[in-house]
Amino acid sequence: MELTTNKKGDFTIAEINGRIDTTNYNEFETQIMDVIEKGEKNIILNCEGLNYISSSGLRVFLITQKKLMGLKGKLHLCNMQPAIKEIFDMSGFSSIFKIFNTEEEALE
Amino acid sequence: MQKHINIKNNIKQLPFLAEELEKLGEEWQLDIPVVTNLNLVLEEAISNIVFYAYDDEKEHEINIVATKNGNEIVIAISDDGKPFDPTKKETPDVSLSAEDRKIGGLGIFLIRKIMDSVNYKRENGKNILTLTKSI
User: Fold this and answer.
1) A-chain residues near B91 (CB < 8 A)
2) What is the ipTM of this complex?
3) pLDDT of A25-34, one tens digit each?
4) Chain-chain contact of A91 with B110 (C-beta, under 8 angstroms)
5) Among A49, B41, B60, B111, which is disulfide-ready with B9 (CB 3.0 to 4.6 Å)?
6) Which domain, by its residues, includes A48?
7) B-chain residues near A92 (CB < 8 A)
8) CB distance from B97 to chain A under 8 Å?
9) CB–CB of A14/A23 below 8 Å?
């Protein structure tokens, strides 16, 4: 798993690449919490390169959402692969998160 | 067709499990989403065993037997840990909002959601979880 960030307008875009599973979810959690601790409250997680997620990874998405809601920030997800979207649908996560088709839409 | 995969009760074995499933997918000519789903249910089941089944620090073996009969895939996972029936585990309420949603509890839920049937039995001091899916 790799997370690369860049700033666009009011948002920090974090691109996730690879798998988030039980062996590395804590790296993902540390990196995304670092972004928030640096003062970024509006985050777009671009999931184009995310090709596998298990419940450990979903847990970090939920923690991030709760954290940003507490800070009155925004968390937008975009470019999700169909297999990942299916896992979000099954888990009821699709109604918890704002999911956009493209990064441009997520920025609006 | 049948394949046996044996792993130790160590979470670092998950990448090995993923590799073995990729090989299985090639041998059995399974679609990639099917392999991904099998990987997910196995990761959830195995990580539960690794984290909760053992009170000692010893090494234990977890046995996985995957069988394909026509369009049906059956996966049997056995471990010699504490008795634990995941089919009895409470289902999380997936309709709750982010504020009310509890962190965790999704692993077994995903197994039940992805597979067509999930059966548990305790036999000869082992937990045996049998998962079935039509593809």
Assistant:
1) none
2) 0.91
3) 999 999 999 9
4) yes
5) B60
6) 2-107
7) 93-96, 101
8) yes
9) no
